[in-house]
Amino acid sequence: MEQQKPPKPYWRFTKNDFFPEPSFQSLSNYKNALLNTPHRLKDRVFGRSSDENELHNLQKESENRMKLCLTWWDLIWMGFGSVVGSGIFSIAGQEAHNHAGPSIVLAYAASGLSALLSVFCYTEFSVEIPVAGGSFSFLRIELGDFIAFIAAANILLEAIVGAAGLGRSWSSYFATIFKPSADAFRIQVGGLPSGFNLLDPIAVLILAIANGIAMYGTKLTSSLNWISSIFSSAVIVFITVVGFVHADTKNLTPFFPYGAEGVFQAAAIVYWSYTGFDMVATMAEETKNPSRDIPLGLVGSMSVITVVYCLMTLALTAMVNYTEIDVNAAFSFAFEKIGMNWAKYLVSIVALKGMTTSLLVGSMGQARYTTQIARSHMIPPWFALVHPKTGTPIYATLAVTIISCIVSFFSSLDVLSSVLSFTTLFIFMLMAVALLVRRYYVQDVTSKQDFRIFLLCMVVVIGSSIGVTALWSSKQRGWIGYTIAGVFWFLGTLGMQLLPKQRVPKIWGVPLVPWLPSLSIGMNFFLIGSLGAAAFYRFFICSAIMMLYYLFVGVHATYDVAHENILPEIVEGKETAAKTVV
């Protein structure tokens, strides 16, 4: 009888752990793989994963399973803890001061509506496909491997930039407890360009601590989150009530100091304030009853959070004139301005708590995104390994931690926020597209005619959304262009409505399909267009760098995984089309 092989040790660092695919076993294999890049890229553009593959097959790459330990109670407070703090304390003051003034409340309302539409999409996918990969897995199933990589690259960018931005915000609020300046504990370096010349060791320290806790265990992190979030909820009520008690209506005039353009530009950036919910969706693999717990956790928490944000920003701008708001520690300064010096310390402590729980939940979500991406071999599968004792992906958490610490050490908050908003909005737009594809297209089931009509309708919806965005960005305010684009958007969505749905959700589904996902596409494009040119440049530069990695590494690793037994063909220098497995 053959003896069972002993389990591999977790702490290992061999070449085969990082690059086990045939294309990387020798230099000649790699050269031949590069020669076949066009064929492989075409294969990956059209290759799609499946529910079964994401749910069961890929989990084997982690060798150990994550622990089923979360309930709807954990998810609701994770939603609250991850979202409240990730933007309201760190970026509301910046956008009220620089772009929106008192109308910042409308910016948060617009972003909240768009986020809620995205929450619907995430919830339907997470209920049916409860895996750690979140949007990455959902896009890989519906839009294919290449689009999933574009999303994966932006997810990893969002993880790094989001954590770094929170670390910088935490440092700002911490400094205001002891010193008048938010930059008190930062080190200024004269030779570096503006935005990168204030080194922040405090941000690095808090990132290391938060990620260390997340590596220790999921249930522990969740318990710390909900206990502290209950306390902060009471203080948020205090902040809002006191803000309205000390409100001066004169501070709300002018309500639109920067016009409608300022509102939408602020809305695009404060979208960061809602980004934590997608991290909660990645916890589906560790949820005991996903079909019940995920809708309660995601939709319930996001609806309440949108109302809370609007009330808090209205109270802020009513207490202090928008021109006097401290962009780094807005709420602390506001209480100091009205003479409640003691309250500013309470606000700072709650802000620190909110950003700390955002870091805790964010570090868990970022690591699980990274884990699923590694399971697919888009990045080395070594990062997918789950520790047998803690049930957490320690390597993935460490990777995100180290890179985000480096970024937070150098980069200022305004540089980070615009990049983060772009990547977040882009992924959420893709999620709405993926949901429509899931409802209206099933391979080998949907007729060619229906598929062509669906594609045409999708192009019309996306094209008209881009058209409205282009008109607004070019400062064209005549009604004719917007009316034409709106009519095309309506006709494209109506065309999808008339098509037969090929898949109906088994448990929980987005209501009013295709109207709500189509509206989500339009709103996300519009908010992307409201970002400044610098955000576009940074986004495309980062994407170009990531594409180089994909062409030289990612496409070959995923191709090998999708086409088993290809090694002999590679060695011979020949490569033919094979049946796609994943």
Report the portion of residues in β strands. under 5%
What is the count of DSSP helices, taking H or I runs of 4+ residues? 23
Radius of gyration: 24 Å
- Helical content class: 55-70%
Counted beta strands: 2
| Low-pLDDT segments | 566-574, 576-582
Distance between the termini: 34 Å
Describe the structure.
It is a single chain. The C terminus is likely disordered. 68% of the residues lie in helices and 1% in strands. It starts with 14 loop residues before the first helix and ends in an 11-residue tail after the last helix. The protein has a two-stranded antiparallel sheet. It contains 23 helices and two strands. With 582 residues, it is an all-alpha fold.
Short summary of the structure?
With about 575 residues, the chain is mainly α. The chain has 23 helices and two strands.
List keywords for this structure.
582 residues; mainly alpha; two-stranded antiparallel sheet; 23 helices; 2 strands; 1% strand; globular; disordered C terminus; transport; amino-acid transport; CAT_C; Cationic amino acid transporter 8, vacuolar
Write the layout of secondary structure elements.
Blueprint: H1 15-18, H2 27-35, H3 37-46, H4 51-57, H5 72-83, H6 92-100, H7 104-128, H8 135-142, H9 145-178, E1 187-188, E2 198-199, H10 201-216, H11 218-245, H12 259-270, H13 277-281, H14 290-319, H15 330-337, H16 341-375, H17 394-410, H18 413-440, H19 448-473, H20 479-498, H21 515-529, H22 533-562, H23 567-571
Antiparallel strand pairs: 1-2
Helix pairs in contact: 3-22, 5-11, 5-14, 5-16, 6-12, 7-12, 7-14, 7-18, 7-21, 8-9, 8-18, 9-10, 9-16, 9-17, 9-18, 9-22, 10-16, 10-17, 11-14, 11-16, 12-21, 15-16, 16-17, 18-21, 18-22, 19-20, 19-21
